[in-house]
Predict the 3D structure of the following.
Amino acid sequence: MSFLRRWHRRRIRTWPFPRHWEPFLYEIPLFPRLPPSDQRELLGHIQVFLSEKRFEGAAGFSVDERVRVIVAGNACLLLLHRETEYFPLMRTVVVYPTLYVARYVRRGPGGVVEEGMEVRAGESWPLGTVVLAWDAVTQAGFAPGARNVVIHEFAHQLDLEDGGMQGVPVLPPELLEAWPKIFFPEYSRVSSSPWPTPLAFGRENPAEFFAVAVELFFADPWGLKAHHPKLYALLSQYFRQDPLSLVL
Ligand SMILES: [Zn+2]
């Protein structure tokens, strides 16, 4: 990253946060629980995110400041405490008003191609776009069984930063050895088990497993830690955060 860009972002992080945006922050499930220093850091990241990313409404949805702040705030939780490039491959957030129908093409066992239509709450594209359904965004929570579609889709963007979606984000040197030793055995265990666990939604492939694990880490850390304590500890090291410590 150029010196100029870093300097520019540092300046943007110090911009005064608009007062009329403050109530929107309390619709981000984790925000009220963060320590003040993390809240301040998040506000800076939101300003940079909103100055660099474009938003578009789909199916007649009008993207207002509340939508932009809530999406940016959830996404930027993934950036706290780390050197960040602000999801460098991602340029545009497209927001639908409700769950939407999209076409899918999947390669199943034996290379059989399956095509059809499915209902979605969000998706993440390698070419710079995240798509979200606003009603799903507003249902995000921080509680046993809670989900968070913004965190899920932006976890896919972290995974994409190294050029592929394989369940491996760009890792700090201290996790290069530990990641494959913990992440892939946990994935194999869930994908081959008939028992439902909170991570069963991610059994399709390692990329999906990573996105669901990150989503649970921030939305249902109770479930993730109870069923996958090693994975919880690995994500805690990667994100330099411990969401269970934020329980009031
Ligand atoms: Zn996904």
